[in-house]
Write a structure and sequence with these properties.
Blueprint lengths: L1 H12 L4 H11 L2 H6 L13 H6 L4 H17 L2 E4 L7 H4 L7 E6 L8 E5 L6 H17 L4 E4 L5 H11 L4 E4 L13 H7 L3 E5 L9 H13 L3 E4 L7 H11 L3 E4 L10 H8 L4 E2 L3 H8 L4 H9 L12 H12 L3 E2 H8 L3 H13 L3 E4 L3 E4 L3
Parallel strand pairs: 3-4, 3-7, 4-5, 5-6, 7-8, 8-9
Antiparallel strand pairs: 1-2, 2-6, 10-12, 11-12
Helix pairs in contact: 1-5, 7-8, 10-11
Length: about 375
């Protein structure tokens, strides 16, 4: 409880410089350590800016804000997910600009083995809506346990959430404000349904307005919590393209639906595909194949045959490279392995499934792989 209060205090005191707060947290190994050494921060982080030192010189107001936030969370059934917690989205945790703390109201586990985000223009067309409808329905058939993330905005976002709910798929919205508010208000009914079949996630304290900068920063969370980004429709500029760019910087797979030439709502998607910044996708089957995801039926059939590890299993070069990494540093998230291997997540997932079937590794929560040593 003390660590949670300290991490909320640190986040409140450093709300104008959240990245520096994360640097301090990582360097000290925890928020309580930062608080205990706030008079000599440069012993923890030699390059600590003076404005950070000044921000933590007097934490009285920040402490009161933290206590108020904890009270609200307990009263309203909100989970406080700190960067070091097991329930914190592990995919996001490895990102350099991961939020220090997240607030979550919902029921869906954020560390599913398969998570995608779906983003696009607020002014979607009938074509975009149809793409969402057919894609989500088919994805639910192939991978019923998938989690779909978006931003609850007008257009593609809300279409994705609503179609997921209609298909019995859990869906999570990343908000650009505190959980005591909802924007846009018109989507309140959908958001209420999502708290029982998914959830609402934000990095913002209560009484935080939905400012433009918050929407931009929200995109990194949408990208970071997922294995892949799917852009359905986008103009030549927009938040969906920002999310796609961030996802690419995190070494995540990016997919885009193509559109007709000259169609304003598809220009961004077509450009992503043209510039090799996104793979073309026309169906959920395309994504599942590109990601190397086995369908639930295929996984069940494989496991029915039994996973029997031989003493000296024959490994391909890629499989051996993964095993060597895990031998030195076990329990790695798939996206971290992707970066270290220099291999797209989709291709790597197929390698990991093969290793799992050979009994060399086992999959833990959040896409974390554990090497089974002999």
């Amino acid at each position: 409880m003390d660590e949670t209060l300290d991490i909320l205090t640190l986040a409140a005191a450093m709300r104008s410089n959240p990245d520096a707060a994360v640097q301090l947290y990582r360097a000290a190994g925890g928020a309580t350590a930062v608080m205990d050494n706030r008079r000599n921060l440069r012993d923890i982080l030699p390059a600590c800016p003076q404005r950070v030192v000044d921000a933590l010189a007097d934490i009285g107001e920040a402490r009161r804000r933290a206590e108020s936030e904890m009270e609200y969370a307990m009263r309203c059934g909100v989970k406080t997910l700190c960067l070091g917690d097991g329930d914190y989205p592990q995919r996001l945790k490895d990102c350099p600009d991961a939020p220090l703390v997240l607030f979550y109201k919902g029921t869906a586990a954020l560390n599913r083995s398969r998570v995608i985000n779906m983003v696009g223009t607020r002014r979607c067309t009938a074509y975009g809506q149809d793409c969402v409808r057919t894609f989500v329905r088919r994805l639910g058939e192939l991978c019923p346990d998938v989690l779909i993330v978006s931003g609850l905005a007008y257009g593609i976002d809300i279409c994705s959430h609503r179609e997921a709910l209609a298909c019995g798929i859990d869906t999570v919205a990343v908000l650009a404000h505190g959980l005591d508010n909802l924007y846009p208000p018109r989507h309140k009914d959908t958001a209420t349904q999502m708290t029982a079949h998914g959830g609402l996630l934000t990095e913002h304290f209560t009484h935080t307005n939905a400012d433009k900068l918050n929407f931009l920063r929200r995109n990194r969370i949408v990208a970071g919590v997922a294995d892949a980004t799917v852009v359905v429709e986008s103009a030549s500029h927009g938040g969906a393209l920002v999310t796609a760019r961030i996802a690419g910087s995190y070494n995540r797979d990016v997919f885009a639906f193509p559109g007709r030439m000259g169609d304003e709502c598809s220009e961004g998607c077509n450009n992503l595909i043209r510039d090799n910044k996104a793979a073309l996708v026309t169906s959920a089957d395309d994504l599942v194949k590109a990601m190397g995801w086995q369908t639930d039926k295929e996984m069940e059939q494989a496991r029915r045959k039994g996973i029997e590890r031989t003493l000296f299993p024959e490994l391909t070069a890629d499989e051996q490279a993964v095993a060597d990494i895990l031998e030195k540093d076990n329990d790695q998230q798939v996206n971290t392995l992707s970066t270290r291997m220099g291999m797209p997540v989709g291709q790597l997932t197929a390698v990991m499934f093969s290793l799992e079937m050979k009994g060399v590794v086992k999959l833990l929560a959040g896409g974390v792989y554990h090497l089974i040593r002999s």
